[in-house]
Design goal:
Distance between the termini of chain A: 21 Å
Bound molecules: 3-isopropylmalic acid
Number of strands of chain A: 12
Largest sheet of chain A: 10 strands, mixed
Strand content of chain A: 15-25%
CATH superfamily of one domain in chain A: Isopropylmalate Dehydrogenase
Largest interface: A-B, 70 and 70 residues
Radius of gyration of chain A: 20 Å
Strand order of the largest sheet of chain A: 2-1-3-12-11-4-5-10-8-9
Structural class of chain A: alpha/beta
CATH architecture of one domain in chain A: 3-Layer(aba) Sandwich
Oligomer: homodimer
């Protein structure tokens, strides 16, 4: 009869709408026997564009300290209107989302991709026929080009120089590569692909390459493969079924997971976990999509990615049966949706919650 | 009756095979009246994996000086067998290809994409029906994450730290953005999309954003648009017809142009120009594909991308009618290919050369 402290950050726009449905499903699944009596005590944190615009606060240290004191975090989406002059780019991304990932040491950014029933992939039948698409990207989450290292000189003048420094440590690369190998070993196909750009980014590339080879020696059952990020674009669109587990750096992972979401039928279904495998701080689960200000407040957003993020969260917490129950409910719901029927956000949440209730 | 000095770098693997066909077509078009009497004097430079493995030389300074003394360069492809222990990653890429781009100030890396007749796109009909796909990526070619700045400490140890520094200057960004606006203005749709990751790479992002806005003010006819690189993955696969001209940095450009080549039906048709618009040094034209050691020497490579690179080269030299003649011949040839018929490399070259001859 575990009691788990859950920090909920609904965020902005459709973030709040999809989070409500995710919590609805979570409540339903914990009420059922599959959760083995686990209970969640949610605490809501209002963070995001709205709070920043109203108060100037992004993520006060005291709030971060409180959030840290939870077992797990569920996030909707943060972000204001595009090009809002009061909201310079990066303020929320660097100050809130990335700060959480970095401070809570979310070094495994986990992004599964598969083609769900009823999904409309932009890929042609002759591609999809090549094989089932079901892979997971293990994106490094705490270093690479995302560190915020770098700066700018003579800003705003014709002599401006701006740098971005990608920082790659053996420590940081080895731990995420290890996690990826362990995941690949547990999957039926036992295949791991490293994606990088070792032929140009030779310094970063060589540390990734070296540690990938070193850890590979400990996992003889896992078949390994290497692909440059540009070549990965081609394989992802012409034969996505070839992938099983992909491990890559923070920026390449950002790019390839959006492509993966696109080819498997849309960002509305892409869930993610920002995982701290060492459990020194709470992990955070969130849909890959953003706050979509253009459709906010209209109950048009598909909460499925947020609900699948709940499933990833349950799995991370060891509530495997509950995780599977949510995922199965989502799959059954997707399979039963009438093509072209526009369901509202709460309708989808209700349908999935009802299936979870059994 | 111009006489133009052409440096030819066939390179390795299929590079030499496709270059032979490109030169065949070039010879044919210059023999015809559309070239207005222009003649090319080719000098061949043996550079690439083979030379490096035989001599240890990548690009001797004296050879670079000779190449510089040409009007234009045609390159096939360079690269040896994958994972050849005698050919560490980056040696040829950084030492030859990127060195040429940087030394000859190829700041506009031009990569047109369209769906040619008979192309088999991996995208589904419901995507392709949205609109004709015909866009060009203007990829910055002389800075960004490709500078080779950065380094590594304690290499090979558990305490290794490796950095890659993306360098972005107002000078470098403004000139490529200007070139992109000028190109967009000359095209019927007059649309330019900036692709970056301003919400995370805030230093580099802000210099790109600022100069994009500044130059935009001088081109009121051009409609502008901004997209994060991750979002661009989604748009490129779900609605590639929306793009007209894209301007982006060196690394994002590398990634997005391979995706563009994939969605428009394959890297076998993707041509590129490494252009020095100020003409302070020769520009270089090359297919986007690599040396494909796996199919080298079998006359299986499609020389179309190399032949289309000749068309880009002719256009750059002001030989507009000759450029169009080559392009039209390629299109007519593609339209006439029997689906599934495997033509050899010289067969395709012959067919296109014959059409050029009239
Ligand atoms: C919003 C942004 C900072 C974020 C990222 O780049 O990681 C997003 O694109 C994602 O993939 O979670
Ligand atoms: C081979 C490599 C250095 C090169 C690049 O990254 O620019 C290639 O991928 C390209 O796009 O021309």
């Amino acid at each position: 009869n575990q009691s788990l402290k859950l920090a909920v950050i609904p965020g902005d726009g459709i973030g709040t709408e999809v989070t409500a449905e995710a919590l609805k499903v979570l409540e339903q699944v914990t009420a059922s026997s599959v959760a083995g009596g686990a209970k969640f005590e949610p605490t809501r944190y209002d963070l995001g564009a709205e709070r920043y615009l109203a108060t100037g606060e992004v993520l006060p240290d005291s709030v971060l300290a409180e959030i840290r004191n939870h077992d797990v975090i569920l996030l909707g989406a943060v972000g204001g209107k595009p090009n809002d002059p009061n909201l310079p780019p990066g303020i929320l991304e660097r100050g809130l989302l990335l700060r959480l990932r970095f401070e809570l040491d979310h070094y495994v950014n986990l992004r599964p991709s598969r083609i769900f029933p009823g999904s409309v992939s932009p890929l042609a039948p002759h591609i999809l026929e090549k094989g089932e698409v079901d892979f997971v990207v293990v994106r490094e989450g705490t270093e690479g080009p995302y560190t915020g290292n770098g700066g700018a000189l003579r800003v705003g003048t014709p002599a401006e120089v701006a740098t971005e420094v990608s920082v790659n440590t053996a420590f940081g690369v080895e731990r995420v590569v290890r996690d990826a190998f362990a995941r690949a070993q547990r999957r039926p196909r036992q295949k791991l692909t490293l994606v990088h750009k070792t032929n140009v980014l030779v310094n970063a590339g060589s540390v990734w390459w070296r540690l990938f080879q070193e850890v590979a020696a400990e996992y003889p059952e896992v078949t390994t493969d290497y692909m440059h990020i540009d070549a990965a674009m081609i394989h992802m669109t012409t034969d996505p079924g070839r992938f099983d587990v992909i491990v890559t750096d923070n920026l390449f992972g950002d790019i390839i997971t959006d492509l993966a979401a696109a080819v498997t039928g849309g960002i509305g279904l892409a869930a993610s976990g920002n995982v701290n495998p060492d459990r020194t701080a709470p992990s955070m689960f969130e849909p890959v999509h953003g706050s979509a200000p253009d459709i906010a407040g209209q109950a048009k957003a598909d909460p499925t990615a947020a609900i699948l993020s709940v499933s990833l969260m349950l799995d991370h917490l060891g509530l495997t049966e509950a995780a599977r129950t949510v995922e199965d409910a989502v799959i059954a719901d997707l399979a039963s949706r009438e093509p072209g029927a526009a369901l509202s956000t709460p309708e989808i949440g209700d349908r999935i919650a009802a299936r979870v209730a059994g």
